[in-house]
Amino acid sequence: MLIIGIAGGSGSGKTTVVNRIIELLPRNSVSVIVQDSYYWDNGHLPPKEKKKINFDHPDSIEWGLLIRHIDQLMEGHAIEMPTYSYVDCARLKETIRIEPKEVTIVEGILIFTNPELRGRFDVKTFVDADDDDRLSRIMRRDIIERGRDVQDVLRHYYTFVKPMHLQFIEPSKRYADIIVPQGGENLVAIDILASKVKTRLSEF
After folding, report:
1. 185, exposed or middle or buried, with CB in 10 Å at 0-12, 13-18, 19+?
2. Which residues share a beta bridge with 84?
3. Spelled out in words, what is the top-level CATH class assigned to the domain 2-196?
């Protein structure tokens, strides 16, 4: 099994890169683990406290469970990946069954900040994008998918997203084997990455 880590700032285009790689690799050969599914359950908090949650800090992730699930996949066992609601800041009852496949992609903003998790990756990719482009995507996503208004998005961005990006996410770029500039729009870089993955697969 080949484990690929795809990191990058919020709104950088990581999901676009993941989807493009899936399209370029053999059908049904890829499983995807999403870091966002492993946020701690904060559904018990009152609404005022939920607004204070810092989703961009490494402490917001249940790393132990995420690493355990990856190890189980590497051992050939299926897992039940949690699902998470940003609206309720809570884990949902539903899970997603992930089967072990030739390639497992782990995607998330903070995945290179954890040394133990980082050591599991055969290929580490960082999706880079300009701050303005990322903010634009964040605004569209948070308004449409997470029920926030413009002021909420901007407050959250300047309180949490931007400072955490500078403190944790941007520095983690130094661990990357491959950097994809221009985010998910850089089809040439994504195609090169997919070719690299195909080559690595042929070596197994």
Report:
1. middle
2. 91
3. alpha beta
- Please write down the long-range contacts of 62-70, taking CB distance under 8 Å and 24 or more positions apart: 62/38, 63/38, 63/114, 63/116, 63/117, 65/38, 66/33, 66/35, 66/38, 66/106, 66/117, 67/114, 67/116, 67/117, 67/120, 69/33, 69/98, 70/3, 70/33, 70/104, 70/106, 70/117, 70/120
List residues bridging with 97 in a β-sheet: 80
Pairwise CA distance, residues 201 & 204, whole Å: 5
Find, among 153, 123, 121, the residue nearest to 137 by Cα. Answer: 153
**What is the distance between the alpha carbons of residues 138 and 12, in angstroms, rounded to a whole number?**
9
pLDDT digits (tens, 9 = 90+) for 55-110: 999 999 999 999 999 999 999 999 999 999 988 999 999 999 999 999 999 999 99
Decide: pTM greater than 0.70. Answer: yes
CA–CA dist 191, 189 (Å, integer) = 5
3-state helix, strand, coil in the chain (%, to 5): 50, 20, 30
Structure tokens at 81: 């990946």
